[in-house]
């Protein structure tokens, strides 16, 4: 009887250990394939601007962003050419839910850095008069980093809007910055600002009308890259 009792206890112990191990494994698997999420105390448009600044500080490439007062998205590429996608959604009054995915399986370390830098950058888009004006100017603007000096990117941008049959086109460009303006068929103003962001790298900011048009902005951006 004593032998049987000992075996029974050992058996139950092994069964319990196996059960705990399985539960832990399933939890880790879900974390590995899902996005890294966090809540941030700020409106989505501010968080989008702060997230864009975060990935730029981390030297990611092909940075693009769109944002409104209820949601936003920032995309970029890391050194391994993995897609980094940051989705921002309103989660309450002045609260946003941020979901970060790096590649197809996720990278918690990189995601945590992005969220931490996003929080640190919020002071740039605070409530002061100067920062509020800066935030309003950023709202509705589609931005991306492009490999090319500003004068070359300005030429490529002009050709892009010409290919799209926009009208009233004008452009100016130097080795440090440039600008292209045009009008759409709906008589909406298109402004493309180009600034030097590094050695043979330019930041391109596109605004279509007063509130922005992501579809047209993407067409212009794709045309710029194709013309370089």
Largest sheet: 5 strands, antiparallel
Q: Looking at the structure, what is the overall shape?
A: globular
Highest-level CATH class of the largest domain = Alpha Beta
What is the share of helical residues?
40-55%
Oligomer: single chain
Which range does the strand content fall in? 25-35%
| Low-confidence regions | 1-32, 127-138
CATH structural architecture of the largest domain: 2-Layer Sandwich
Structural class estimated from helices and strands: alpha+beta
Q: Give me the number of helical elements.
A: 6
Radius of gyration: 24 Å
CATH topology of the largest domain: TATA-Binding Protein
The H/E string reads HEHEEEEHHEHEEEEH
| Mean pLDDT across every amino acid position | 79
Distance between the termini: 84 Å
Strand segment tally: 10
Brief summary of the model shown:
This protein is an alpha+beta fold. Helices cover 43% and strands 33% of the residues.
Protein architecture, described:
This protein is an alpha+beta fold and 228 residues long. The chain has two domains: 36-138, TATA-Binding Protein, CATH 3.30.310; 142-227, Kinase associated domain 1, KA1 (TATA-Binding Protein), CATH 3.30.310.80. Helix content is 43%, strand content 33%. It has six helices and ten strands. A five-stranded antiparallel β-sheet has the order 1-5-4-3-2, with helices on one face. Strands 6-10-9-8-7 form a five-stranded antiparallel β-sheet, covered by helices on one side. A hairpin with a 3-residue loop joins strand 7 and strand 8 (177-183). Helix 2 (44-57) packs across helix 3. The termini are far apart. Mean pLDDT is 79; it is low at 1-32 and 127-138.
């Amino acid at each position: 009887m004593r032998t049987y009792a000992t075996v029974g206890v050992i058996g139950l112990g092994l069964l319990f250990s196996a059960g705990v191990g399985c539960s832990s494994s399933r939890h880790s698997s879900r974390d590995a394939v899902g996005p890294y999420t966090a809540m941030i105390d700020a409106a989505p448009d501010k968080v989008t601007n702060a997230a864009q600044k975060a990935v730029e500080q981390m030297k990611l490439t092909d940075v693009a962003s769109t944002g409104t007062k209820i949601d936003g998205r920032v995309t970029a590429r890391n050194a391994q050419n993995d897609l980094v996608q940051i989705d921002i959604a309103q989660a309450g009054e002045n609260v946003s839910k941020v979901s970060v995915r790096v590649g197809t399986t996720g990278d918690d370390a990189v995601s945590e850095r992005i969220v931490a830098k996003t929080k640190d950058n919020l002071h740039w888009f605070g409530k002061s008069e100067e920062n509020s004006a800066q935030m309003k100017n950023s709202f509705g603007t589609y931005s991306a980093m492009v490999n090319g000096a500003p004068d070359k990117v300005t030429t490529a941008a002009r050709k892009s809007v010409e290919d799209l049959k926009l009208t009233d086109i004008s452009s100016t460009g130097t080795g440090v910055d440039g600008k292209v303006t045009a009008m759409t068929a709906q008589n909406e103003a298109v402004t493309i600002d180009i600034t030097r962001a590094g050695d043979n790298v330019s930041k391109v900011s596109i605004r279509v009308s007063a509130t922005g048009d992501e579809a047209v902005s993407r067409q212009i951006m794709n045309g710029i890259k194709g013309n370089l």
